[in-house]
Every structure is written in C-alpha cells, then in structure tokens.
C-alpha cells in the first residue's frame, strides 16, 4: 500500500469518527460559552482566511482575479476592523452570565487573562491591517488613519491616498528596476519575433514556389499517365499475340522434331570432330 | 560493323546518296543508317568536325525518309558538337533547325528546349542571338498553352538582358512574364515579375516609368494586395520623399530577397543618382496638377 493510500484512508476514518472527537467538541463548546472567545475566534478565523486569500492573490497570474481577490480582502478587513471595538469592550467585561456551570472557567478571569485578552485585542488591528491587499507597501502607521476614518466611508483604497506621496519614492526605486527589466525583455522578444517573421517569410516564399511547381507538373503527370496507359495496353496486346504464337509452336510437333534434329546434328559434329582429331 | 572505320562508312553512305548515272534514286534509308554509325564512330574517336558533318548528313537522311523526330535529334547532336568546336553561327542554325523539326512532329516542348539549349550555349559569345532564341522559345510554348514551362526561359532571358544592360527590354520582358504567369494563375511569380520590373525602372532612375508601371500593375488585384505590391508602394513613396535610408532599409527584407539574384543585386545598388532631381521633376508635376486650365 502506498503512502497516498494510507493518507486517504486515514482521512476517511477521521471524517467518519469526527463526531466522537471529544477534544474538538469541547473546544467548540468552550468557545461557545464565552462571548469574547467566540468573537475572537471568529475574527481570528476571518483573518486567517484573508491571509490565505492574499497568498493566492500574490500567486495569481490573472489580473482580474487578483483585483477581485484584493477587493474581497479589503472588504473583510473593513468588517473586521469594525468588530475590533466590540472585542475591546468584551475583553474588559467579566462575562459571568454563563459561569454558573463552568465557574472555574470564566469567573476566574484572572488579571493575567484580562491583560492577555487586552493585548490580543490591541494586536488585532495591526494584524488586520498587515493583511496584504494589493495596495499596502510596508506601511506602518495604520492605526491612526483607520481610527480617524469614519466607518461608513467607502474605502476605495484602504491604505489611503494621503500616504501615497510618502511612499512614492520607495515605489519608484523598485519599479524603475522593474521597468528597465521589462523594457529589456520586451526588446529581446521583439528581436526574436523579427527573426521568426523573417523565417516565416522565407517559408512562405518557398511554399508558394512549391505550389507553382506542383501546378506545373500536374499536366505533365497527366500526359505521362495517358502515355503509360497506352504503352501497357500495347504490351498486353503483344503479350497475347506472343502467347498464341508460342502455343502454336508448342502444339505442333515442330518443337520436338527440332530438338531431335539438333541432337542428331550435334552427334554428327562430335563424331566428325573425333575423327578429325585422330 | 561497328569496328569499321567511320571514314569508310561515310564514303559508302555518300556513294549511296550521290545520284549518278547508274543510280536514279538515292537510297536514303541505308545511307542514313551508315551516316549514323559513322557519326557515332567519329564522336567516339573525338573527331568532332567529322562527327558533326556526319550528324548533319544523318539528319538530312532522316528528313528524307520523313522521320522528323530522328532528324531533329541528330541536328541537336550536331549542334552540341558545333558548340564544342566553337562555330557559333552554326550552333544557332542547327538548333533552330532542330526546333523546327520538332515542331513538325507537333512537340512544342522539345522544340523550345532545343532553342533554350542553343540560347544558353550562346549566352556568353553572342548574347543578342541568345536572347532572340529565348524569346522564340517562349513564344513557342505560349502558342501551345504551356506557359508554365516558359518561366525558366524568361528568367534566363531577363538575366541576359540585365547583363547586356538593356534594362527597358528586361523590364518589358518581365511584364510579359507577368502576363504568362497570369494565364496560368501563378500569382506569386506574377507579383515577383512586376516587382522586378519596378525595381529595374527605378534602377534606371526613371521614376515616372516606375510609377506608371506600378499603376498599371495595380490594375491586377492580386498584385495590389500582395507583399510585393506593398513593398513596391513603400519603395515608390520612399523615392518620392527622397528618403535614402528608407530605400536602403526596404531593400533588405524579404519580398526583394525572394526575387532573382540578378534583381537583388540591382536593388542593393538602389538609390542610383540624385534624388533631388526627382523632387524637382515632381514639383513640375504638381504645378501641372494645380493648373486647372
């Protein structure tokens, strides 16, 4: 059994027995009881998915697909940034609504946990902003802008235009190189294409000449054809007549008589030769 | 029989053919056979003069017994021997005679072949005669509707004309070539012929003629829309603008490189003479155009 087979089988088995996975269910349940944890988990999930989309966008060749993916990422980022204040409030709250049964879990929202939650929430906007969506370029000071921008504004370019000037010089260094490389490659391609076109022209000319030559030879071939037909019919004729003649010869006894006479003459000649030799 | 001395055979054959008191009818059949053998014998011995004579007589004999095909064949052999001997007028005479005999047989292709061979033999020594032979050969083929075969002859004739520097004749011949190509739907050859004609006119520095030629040829739709037509258009417009670089650039790429090498040489030398003259002439033209009276 190959490794792939083993893997597929393991996957199938896991899927089948998913519902018995206590740990996972417990994890879900735990998150389910705590509003903050729930929200945080969902935000986390969204951030992860957005990062994945950014990955695919960076590897995508189709420009239109890249643009669409970037737009989606920006929308997700905007939505997540809206959730961040909610999370902040939740982090500070001590959620004791559901702690009756799972007292030990939530009531003991110790100081450390509170601080960690705070840190997590504070780190979240940065994480969200750092998701590449096709318009950021190592920008750092995101927090201030997003805080001042109103939420209802349609963010066309989420890393805003004001910063464009400061980034301008950074961009042109890289893009200059890129542009040069692009020009060089374009020149090389043009040269190659020129050579190809010359070759194709020669081929076209040769093909035309061959065409004309073949046209020239068609009537010649027809002539040859008719002449050879005539020759074959003549030959057939001659063959038939020859066959008749030979049959005639064979049917009569002339042939045998000829052979006998020939033998007699040879015998006489041999006799004479012997006699003369002596 | 073959070991017999060709001289003896000749003598015998002559005796057979000479009418004398005792002989009222010349016995051409036997004589011809003897002449042929003698000719072969002489050729084997490399006595070209005598072989040539023998072939001539053999051919005459064949004519007499009315087999023009063999007669023509012998004439051709005689002509090739004359070529080796260097009797150039004899060469042309023999080849013409051979061609006529072929035409008697009704076979036009060998007839024009004979003339073609004669022309190529005479190209170096007597090019005028050579060209005449080429043109006659082309005419024979065209009469018979076999223009396709004439292309090679046209090509050879054009190169001979260019060598003689008779450019107008060359251009006229090219246009005839174009007509022949048209009849057998050989579009590529036709366009090439027209382009070559235009180039020759430009080489002769005769811009008006070139323009006229281009306009005439544009009547043919195939030429207008072909690569060659486009190249001609660009060439003429470059000439009008007096742009030497453009002309030189145009002479490089493909439609011209596919033409006959003689024409390519002319095209490479292209712009000949002073382009300013052309401009002056053109100004006169524009004045005429503006003159509406």
From TrEMBL, chain A:
Chief location category: membrane
Xref: Gene3D superfamilies: 1.20.5.110
Stored PROSITE patterns: SYNTAXIN, T_SNARE
Keyword flag Cell inner membrane: no
One of the record's GO molecular function terms: SNARE binding
Source organism superkingdom: Eukaryota
GO biological process terms on file: intracellular protein transport; vesicle docking; vesicle fusion
Family statement drawn from the similarity comment of this UniProt entry: Belongs to the syntaxin family.
Quaternary state and interactors: Part of the t-SNARE complex.
Full protein name: t-SNARE coiled-coil homology domain-containing protein
Source species: Zingiber officinale
Organism lineage string: Eukaryota, Viridiplantae, Streptophyta, Embryophyta, Tracheophyta
């Amino acid at each position: 059994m190959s490794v792939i087979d083993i893997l597929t089988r393991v996957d199938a088995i896991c899927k089948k027995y998913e519902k018995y996975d206590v740990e996972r269910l417990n994890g879900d349940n735990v998150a389910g009881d705590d509003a903050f944890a729930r929200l945080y988990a969902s935000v986390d999930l969204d951030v992860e998915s957005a990062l994945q989309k950014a990955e695919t966008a960076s590897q995508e060749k189709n420009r239109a697909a890249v643009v669409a993916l970037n737009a989606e990422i920006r929308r997700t980022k905007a939505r997540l940034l809206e959730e961040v204040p909610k999370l902040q409030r939740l982090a500070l709250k001590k959620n004791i609504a559901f702690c009756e049964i799972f007292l030990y879990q939530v009531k003991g929202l110790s100081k450390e946990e509170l601080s960690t939650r705070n840190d997590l929430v504070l780190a979240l906007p940065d994480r969200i902003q750092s998701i590449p969506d096709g318009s950021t370029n190592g920008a750092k000071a995101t927090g201030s802008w997003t805080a001042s921008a109103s939420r209802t504004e349609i963010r066309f370019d989420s890393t805003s235009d004001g910063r464009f000037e400061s980034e301008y010089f950074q961009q042109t260094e890289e893009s200059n190189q890129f542009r040069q490389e692009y020009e060089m490659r374009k020149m090389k391609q043009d040269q190659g294409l020129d050579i190809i076109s010359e070759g194709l022209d020669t081929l076209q000319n040769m093909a035309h000449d061959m065409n004309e030559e073949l046209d020239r030879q068609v009537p010649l071939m027809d002539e040859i054809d008719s002449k050879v037909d005539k020759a074959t019919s003549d030959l057939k004729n001659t063959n038939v007549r020859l066959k008749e003649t030979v049959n005639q010869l064979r049917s009569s006894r002339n042939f045998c008589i000829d052979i006998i006479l020939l033998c007699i003459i040879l015998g006489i000649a041999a006799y004479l030769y012997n006699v003369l030799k002596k | 029989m073959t070991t017999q001395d060709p001289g003896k055979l000749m003598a015998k054959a002559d005796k057979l053919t000479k009418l004398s008191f005792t002989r009222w009818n010349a016995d051409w059949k036997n004589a011809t056979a003897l002449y042929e053998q003698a000719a072969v014998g002489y050729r084997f011995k490399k006595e070209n003069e005598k072989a040539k004579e023998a072939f001539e007589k053999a051919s005459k004999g064949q004519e007499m017994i009315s087999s023009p095909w063999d007669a023509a064949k012998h004439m051709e052999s005689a002509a090739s021997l004359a070529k080796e001997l260097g009797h150039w007028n004899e060469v042309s005479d023999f080849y013409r005679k051979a061609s006529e005999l072929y035409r008697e047989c009704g076979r036009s292709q060998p007839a024009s072949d004979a003339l073609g061979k004669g022309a190529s033999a005479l190209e170096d020594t007597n090019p005028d005669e050579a060209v005449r032979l080429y043109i006659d050969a082309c005419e024979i083929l065209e009469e018979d509707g076999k223009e396709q075969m004439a292309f090679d002859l046209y090509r050879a004739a054009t190169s001979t004309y260019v060598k003689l520097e008779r450019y107008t004749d060359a251009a006229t011949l090219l246009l005839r070539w174009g007509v022949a190509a048209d009849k057998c739907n050989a579009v590529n050859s036709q366009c090439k012929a027209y382009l070559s004609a235009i180039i020759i006119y430009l080489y002769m520095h005769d811009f008006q003629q070139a323009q006229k030629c281009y306009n005439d040829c544009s009547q043919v739709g195939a030429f207008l829309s072909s690569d060659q037509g486009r190249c001609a258009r660009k060439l003429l417009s470059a000439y009008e603008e007096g742009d030497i670089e453009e002309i030189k650039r145009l002479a490089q790429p493909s439609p011209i490189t596919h033409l006959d090498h003689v024409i390519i040489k002319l095209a490479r030398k292209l712009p000949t003479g002073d382009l300013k003259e052309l401009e002056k002439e053109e100004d006169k033209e524009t004045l005429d155009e503006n003159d509406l009276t």
